[in-house]
Amino acid sequence: MNSIAGNIRQICQNIESACRRVGRNPDAVRLIAVSKVKPAEDIEKAYRAGQTLFGESYVQEFRDKFLQVNEPVEWHFIGGLQSNKVRYLRGAVAMIHSVDRLSLAEEIDRQWRKINRTVKVLVQVNVGDEASKSGCSVTELEPLVEKISTLENLRICGLMCLPPHFDDAEQVRPFFRKLRHLAEHLSAQDLPNVSMHELSMGMSGDYEIAVEEGATLVRIGTAIFGARVKK
Ligand SMILES: *Cc1c(COP(=O)(O)O)cnc(C)c1O
User: Fold this and answer.
1) Could you read off the pLDDT of 117-165 as tens digits, one per residue?
2) 26 pLDDT exceeds 70?
3) How many other β-carbons are positioned within 10 Å of the β-carbon of residue 131?
4) Residue 84 DSSP label
5) Å from CA of 221 to ligand 1 middle
6) Taking the CA of residue 129 as centre, how many other CA atoms within 13 Å lie in the half-sphere pointing to its CB?
7) Per-residue pLDDT reduced to its tens digit, 65-77
8) Ligand 1 centre from 189 Cα, in Å?
9) Ligand 1 site, residue 38, Cβ cutoff 6 A
10) Residue 91 CA, ligand 1 centroid: distance in Å
11) Alpha carbon 134 to its chain's center
12) Which residue ranges form the domains of the chain, and what is each CATH number?
């Protein structure tokens, strides 16, 4: 039996159960299979199991797999991004989850303008205020969103976070809740060109809690594809 297919089935069941516990519609949650470090064959196995949305974190590796995988999958870029590499994502990804500074948003806007298209972006927030993590600070968030919202070739559709790690996943809950509250607060400002309907939060160890707290996109690697050998 194909364990990738089995893992995906199990995760979808767990997402449904988490939705049921809090009265959410499971259709409001999309699973992103985080395929970084894993070969294109694994993506194809997941695709044959019905998975169509994939997340990658490294630009060069994404380029390789983008060329290798011929199935009509939807790609999201979820990793840290340098402005000088944005052009390699142009037209190839449907969403970028890791926008945390104006200069990066401006470069994304510039690249997508060249192809006369728009791209969806999420603003990454450093909810745990950790020096080691990227993401804008909570205090920077609102002015950053306002500035990015004036750029024509991208659309802000929500927030993303990578909260602190705890062995007990329950301890992550307040950080997920914080991201949801930030999105609710911004949504109430009714900024032009800003929608806050996506919350990208939850990974292999804590996605059920993220779903209980309102995640609409969960990013799961290890629980689908198995452990990664460190890059
Ligand atoms: C690697 C990665 C994930 C997936 O993590 P797992 O614990 O393997 O599920 C999710 N989000 C981001 C931003 C990542 O880089």
Assistant:
1) 999 999 999 999 999 999 999 999 999 999 999 999 999 999 999 999 9
2) yes
3) 6
4) G
5) 6
6) 4
7) 999 999 999 999 9
8) 31
9) no
10) 23
11) 14
12) 4-225 (3.20.20.10)
